[in-house]
Amino acid sequence: MTDHRNLLELEEAARQLFRKISVSWSKFNENGMTPVQGFLLERLEIEGPLKASQIADMLCYTPGAITTLSDKLIAAGLVERERTDEDRRVVYLSITEAGRQMLGTIRLQRRANVENFFGDLADEDIQHLIRIFKEVVYKDKG
Protein backbone atom coordinates (compact mmCIF):
# COMPACT_ATOMS: atom_id res chain seq x y z
CA MET A 1 0.00 0.00 0.00
CA THR A 2 1.28 3.46 -0.88
CA ASP A 3 2.20 5.79 1.98
CA HIS A 4 -0.52 8.42 2.44
CA ARG A 5 2.10 11.19 2.74
CA ASN A 6 3.50 10.25 -0.67
CA LEU A 7 0.02 10.44 -2.18
CA LEU A 8 -0.52 13.89 -0.69
CA GLU A 9 2.86 15.03 -2.01
CA LEU A 10 1.97 13.65 -5.44
CA GLU A 11 -1.38 15.43 -5.36
CA GLU A 12 0.29 18.73 -4.48
CA ALA A 13 2.96 18.31 -7.17
CA ALA A 14 0.27 17.54 -9.77
CA ARG A 15 -1.80 20.54 -8.68
CA GLN A 16 1.22 22.83 -8.98
CA LEU A 17 2.15 21.42 -12.39
CA PHE A 18 -1.35 21.81 -13.81
CA ARG A 19 -1.58 25.33 -12.41
CA LYS A 20 1.77 26.26 -13.97
CA ILE A 21 0.70 24.78 -17.29
CA SER A 22 -2.55 26.74 -17.14
CA VAL A 23 -0.76 30.01 -16.36
CA SER A 24 1.80 29.32 -19.07
CA TRP A 25 -0.96 28.54 -21.58
CA SER A 26 -2.42 31.97 -20.89
CA LYS A 27 0.94 33.57 -21.71
CA PHE A 28 1.46 31.57 -24.92
CA ASN A 29 -2.17 31.90 -25.95
CA GLU A 30 -2.53 35.00 -28.07
CA ASN A 31 -6.01 34.26 -29.39
CA GLY A 32 -8.14 33.93 -26.26
CA MET A 33 -8.80 30.23 -26.80
CA THR A 34 -8.93 27.84 -23.87
CA PRO A 35 -7.13 24.48 -23.99
CA VAL A 36 -10.51 22.72 -24.08
CA GLN A 37 -11.64 24.80 -27.06
CA GLY A 38 -8.41 23.91 -28.84
CA PHE A 39 -8.88 20.23 -28.03
CA LEU A 40 -12.43 20.34 -29.41
CA LEU A 41 -11.26 21.94 -32.66
CA GLU A 42 -8.57 19.28 -32.97
CA ARG A 43 -11.03 16.41 -32.42
CA LEU A 44 -13.41 17.87 -35.02
CA GLU A 45 -10.61 18.20 -37.57
CA ILE A 46 -9.34 14.67 -36.98
CA GLU A 47 -12.63 12.82 -36.61
CA GLY A 48 -14.99 14.96 -38.65
CA PRO A 49 -18.44 16.07 -37.49
CA LEU A 50 -19.39 14.86 -34.01
CA LYS A 51 -22.55 14.96 -31.91
CA ALA A 52 -22.45 16.99 -28.72
CA SER A 53 -22.93 13.78 -26.72
CA GLN A 54 -19.81 12.28 -28.32
CA ILE A 55 -17.82 15.39 -27.46
CA ALA A 56 -19.14 15.35 -23.89
CA ASP A 57 -17.95 11.76 -23.50
CA MET A 58 -14.49 12.59 -24.92
CA LEU A 59 -13.98 15.58 -22.66
CA CYS A 60 -15.75 14.16 -19.59
CA TYR A 61 -18.03 17.22 -19.62
CA THR A 62 -21.78 17.53 -19.25
CA PRO A 63 -23.88 18.05 -22.39
CA GLY A 64 -24.81 21.50 -21.05
CA ALA A 65 -21.15 22.47 -20.76
CA ILE A 66 -20.59 21.32 -24.35
CA THR A 67 -23.50 23.48 -25.49
CA THR A 68 -21.90 26.52 -23.85
CA LEU A 69 -18.49 25.64 -25.28
CA SER A 70 -19.82 25.06 -28.78
CA ASP A 71 -21.95 28.24 -28.71
CA LYS A 72 -18.78 30.28 -28.13
CA LEU A 73 -16.95 28.53 -30.98
CA ILE A 74 -19.95 28.96 -33.29
CA ALA A 75 -20.19 32.67 -32.43
CA ALA A 76 -16.49 33.00 -33.31
CA GLY A 77 -17.09 31.27 -36.67
CA LEU A 78 -14.78 28.37 -35.80
CA VAL A 79 -17.43 25.64 -35.60
CA GLU A 80 -20.83 25.17 -37.20
CA ARG A 81 -23.88 23.04 -36.50
CA GLU A 82 -25.04 20.55 -39.12
CA ARG A 83 -28.28 18.57 -39.21
CA THR A 84 -28.70 15.28 -41.03
CA ASP A 85 -31.37 14.73 -43.65
CA GLU A 86 -32.32 11.43 -42.00
CA ASP A 87 -33.17 12.97 -38.63
CA ARG A 88 -33.31 16.76 -38.35
CA ARG A 89 -33.22 16.49 -34.54
CA VAL A 90 -29.66 15.14 -34.64
CA VAL A 91 -27.10 17.94 -34.62
CA TYR A 92 -23.43 17.53 -35.46
CA LEU A 93 -20.66 20.02 -34.85
CA SER A 94 -18.03 20.50 -37.53
CA ILE A 95 -14.95 22.66 -37.85
CA THR A 96 -14.98 25.57 -40.30
CA GLU A 97 -12.09 26.79 -42.43
CA ALA A 98 -11.55 29.60 -39.90
CA GLY A 99 -11.45 26.91 -37.20
CA ARG A 100 -8.77 25.04 -39.13
CA GLN A 101 -6.68 28.19 -39.40
CA MET A 102 -7.09 28.86 -35.68
CA LEU A 103 -6.13 25.25 -34.95
CA GLY A 104 -2.84 25.73 -36.80
CA THR A 105 -2.01 28.65 -34.52
CA ILE A 106 -3.13 26.74 -31.42
CA ARG A 107 -0.92 23.78 -32.32
CA LEU A 108 2.15 26.01 -32.55
CA GLN A 109 1.33 27.64 -29.22
CA ARG A 110 0.61 24.32 -27.53
CA ARG A 111 3.85 22.83 -28.83
CA ALA A 112 5.83 25.74 -27.42
CA ASN A 113 4.05 25.38 -24.09
CA VAL A 114 4.56 21.61 -23.87
CA GLU A 115 8.22 21.92 -24.84
CA ASN A 116 8.63 24.57 -22.16
CA PHE A 117 7.61 22.04 -19.50
CA PHE A 118 8.67 18.67 -20.85
CA GLY A 119 11.20 19.38 -23.61
CA ASP A 120 14.24 18.72 -21.41
CA LEU A 121 13.02 15.30 -20.24
CA ALA A 122 14.45 12.13 -21.75
CA ASP A 123 12.12 10.23 -24.10
CA GLU A 124 12.10 7.36 -21.61
CA ASP A 125 10.86 9.67 -18.84
CA ILE A 126 8.16 11.05 -21.12
CA GLN A 127 7.02 7.51 -21.94
CA HIS A 128 6.85 6.72 -18.21
CA LEU A 129 4.73 9.82 -17.60
CA ILE A 130 2.39 8.91 -20.46
CA ARG A 131 1.98 5.39 -19.10
CA ILE A 132 1.35 6.61 -15.56
CA PHE A 133 -1.12 9.32 -16.61
CA LYS A 134 -3.07 6.87 -18.78
CA GLU A 135 -3.12 4.30 -16.00
CA VAL A 136 -4.56 6.85 -13.58
CA VAL A 137 -7.02 8.37 -16.05
CA TYR A 138 -8.39 5.10 -17.39
CA LYS A 139 -8.39 3.17 -14.12
CA ASP A 140 -11.86 1.72 -13.56
CA LYS A 141 -12.98 2.42 -10.02
CA GLY A 142 -16.33 0.69 -10.66
UniProtKB/TrEMBL annotation:
Q: Give residue ranges for domain HTH marR-type.
A: 3-138
Stored Pfam families: MarR
Q: Does the keyword Disulfide bond apply?
A: no
Q: Which PROSITE patterns match?
A: HTH_MARR_2 (PS50995)
Query: Which top-level group of life is the source organism from?
Result: Bacteria
Q: Does Oxidoreductase appear among the keywords?
A: no
Q: Which UniProt keywords apply?
A: DNA-binding
PANTHER family to which the protein is assigned, alphabetical: HTH-TYPE TRANSCRIPTIONAL REPRESSOR YETL, TRANSCRIPTIONAL REGULATOR, MARR FAMILY
This protein's name: MarR family transcriptional regulator
